[in-house]
Amino acid sequence: MSSHGSSNTGSETATGMSSATRTPATAGIGEDKPKMFDAKGSIGKQFTEEGAIGGAAQKIGGPLDKEGIVGKQFTTEGSIGGSVQSALGGQSKRSN
Q1: In this prediction, what percent of the chain has a pLDDT beyond 90?
Q2: Residue 72 and residue 66: Cα distance in Å, rounded?
Q3: Distances, alpha carbon 94 to alpha carbons 8, 59, 62, in Å
Q4: 51-81: string of b/e by CB count within 10 Å (b at 16+)?
């Protein structure tokens, strides 16, 4: 115990709980996240022009380009991408 009767050994200016401190391990807790198949999710983003699959199609170009006859079907407005986005996309519930 300290001289003033408190067992608190921390700084006099420290207030609040340690769980309020934001670290890389706690980043994103309590925030809404995109679902996996959403265009911003871990799987869905691979099909965008910046992702691994969509990016490769963009490099090939032609019908696989995002404006091409095949590629445009995989955008969020296309028949395939749009169906996946509306069925499996969106936001997941908050973590914790």
Answers
A1: 29
A2: 5
A3: 34, 36, 40
A4: beebeebbeeeeebbbebeebbebbeebeeb
Q: Which two structure tokens, joined as six digits, stand for 32?
A: 């809404």
Contacts of 94 (CB under 8 A, 6+ apart): 30, 31, 32
Q: How far apart are the first and last CA of the chain?
A: 35
Question: What pLDDT digit, counting tens, does each position of 60-76 carry?
Answer: 999 999 999 999 998 88
Bridge-partner residues for 43, per DSSP? none
Tokens 């991408």 belong to 81
Spatial distance between the Cα atoms of 55 and 39, rounded to a whole number of angstroms? 14
- For the segment 54-63, the average pLDDT, to the nearest whole number, is 93
